[in-house]
Amino acid sequence: MSHSARIHLGLALLIALSVLFLFSMVHTAAGAPRSGPRAVADGHRLAQAWCQTCHAVEPGMAGWFDDAPSFQAIADRSGTTALSLKVFWRTSHQNMPNLVISPEQADVLSAYILSLRGR
């Protein structure tokens, strides 16, 4: 194989690997919500920091206000799914401050809430 052919083959391989890498990065960023133990732990920390003022974020914990449902109650609702929570995070609510959270933060908060189901 000539030197020129090896260079062209190497460049083609480099381009192909770069495209695959970029595709995997885009797919991961826009793909399925984060889940697993780390997402649950991160969601728990966010819930304690942002939501605990009004909601009971721990199982069996009482909330500050009767109007704010506990995270356990939210998790145990039959209509609570990852998708319903994703929609919830994107809409304004009358009795809740308008939080601006990133998609990743929404994913980990949802993962934490869903982890409470049936406890």
From TrEMBL:
- Report the domain of life of the source organism: Bacteria
Please provide the record's keywords in A-Z order: Heme, Iron, Metal-binding
Q: Does the keyword Iron apply?
A: yes
Q: Could you give a GO molecular-function term held by this entry?
A: metal ion binding
Q: In this protein, which residues make up the domain named Cytochrome c?
A: 38-117
Name it: Cytochrome c
Q: Which organism is it from?
A: Bradyrhizobium frederickii
Q: In the record, what lineage is assigned to the organism producing the protein?
A: Bacteria, Pseudomonadati, Pseudomonadota, Alphaproteobacteria, Hyphomicrobiales
